């Protein structure tokens, strides 16, 4: 295999997440083909670690007091599937307050195929604060759609960017479970063909990781 200099698209991805141009939502099966999941669990059935305020009559609800370990929130099988060649243990990104925000990243270049996966947990003061943050973030995105059955609210969007004729397609899922936002970013490129994985592949991968992350938050573990 000939050596291959990393193109500018990879260099850009190793910096903070690239802001990608909107490329449309439609999956191969049509714009209405949002992946289906089980019905939302009632809030009282959540089994994750909660603060004492969850059972009080306080108007400030904080169901989850801390963020779970992000590198343990996705199964090794899922990491192998979504990021071939990556270390399944992942790498946690340093945070100024790990109780409130934790992020894990997996990335690998296998042959000419590059994949990157981020999973973040952001703990907020109340359900209301988290809801407002969720609404603000999803309002900034275009071309996406809701993900039924994932947390209390969930939104998924896939975008495409092209730099120096190299395509990179990125999927993002923002999910809210009570007072926590779970944000998953998944992208990929093929440096030989200069094409990117198709929209359906990226979207389904991001949603799969998001489902496992939300399950880990709620106490059920990955998957």
What does this structure look like?
The protein is an alpha+beta fold. The protein has a single domain (67-223), classed as Protein Transport Mog1p, Chain A (3-Layer(aba) Sandwich), CATH 3.40.1000. Helix content is 21%, strand content 27%. It contains 4 helices and 7 strands, in the order H-H-E-E-E-H-E-E-E-E-H. A 7-stranded antiparallel beta sheet has the order 1-2-3-7-6-5-4, with helices on both faces. The longest helix has 19 residues, at 199-217. The radius of gyration is 18 Å and the shape is globular. The N and C termini lie far apart (36 Å).
Per-chain topology:
Layout: H1 8-13, H2 76-82, E1 91-93, E2 101-110, E3 113-123, H3 127-140, E4 145-146, E5 153-163, E6 166-177, E7 180-190, H4 199-217
Antiparallel strand pairs: 1-2, 2-3, 3-7, 4-5, 5-6, 6-7
CATH class: Alpha Beta
Ranges where pLDDT stays below 50 over 5 or more residues in a row are 1-59
Distance between the terminal alpha carbons, to the nearest Å? Answer: 36 Å
Quaternary state of this entry equals: single chain
The whole-angstrom Rg is: 18 Å
Domain count: the total is 1
Largest sheet: 7 strands, antiparallel
In DSSP terms (H or I, runs of 4 or more residues), the helix count works out at: 4
Structural class: alpha+beta
Helix fraction, binned, reads 10-25%
Hey, roughly how much beta strand do the residues contain? 25-35%
Order of helices and strands: HHEEEHEEEEH
Shape: globular
Summarize the structure.
This protein has 223 residues and is of the alpha+beta class.
Give the key terms.
alpha+beta; Protein Transport Mog1p, Chain A; 4 helices; 7 strands; disordered N terminus
């Amino acid at each position: 295999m000939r050596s291959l200099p990393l193109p500018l698209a990879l260099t850009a991805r190793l910096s903070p997440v690239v802001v990608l141009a909107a490329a449309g939502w439609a999956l191969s099966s049509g714009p209405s083909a949002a992946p289906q999941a089980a019905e939302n669990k009632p809030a009282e059935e959540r089994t994750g670690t909660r603060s004492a305020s969850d059972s009080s009559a306080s108007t400030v609800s904080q169901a989850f007091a801390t963020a779970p370990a992000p590198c343990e929130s996705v199964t090794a099988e899922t990491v192998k599937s979504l990021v071939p060649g990556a270390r399944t243990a992942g790498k946690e990104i340093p945070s100024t307050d790990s109780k409130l925000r934790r992020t894990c990243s997996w990335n690998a270049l296998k042959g000419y195929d590059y994949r990157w996966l981020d999973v973040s947990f952001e703990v907020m003061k109340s359900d209301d604060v988290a809801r407002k943050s969720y609404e603000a973030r999803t309002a900034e995105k275009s071309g996406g759609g809701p993900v039924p059955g994932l947390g209390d609210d969930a939104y998924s969007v896939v975008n495409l960017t092209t730099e120096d004729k190299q395509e990179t397609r990125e999927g993002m899922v923002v999910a809210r479970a009570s007072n926590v936002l779970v944000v998953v970013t998944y992208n990929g490129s093929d440096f030989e063909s200069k094409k990117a994985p198709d929209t359906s592949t990226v979207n389904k991968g991001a949603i799969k990781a998001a489902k496992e992350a939300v399950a880990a938050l709620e106490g059920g573990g990955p998957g």
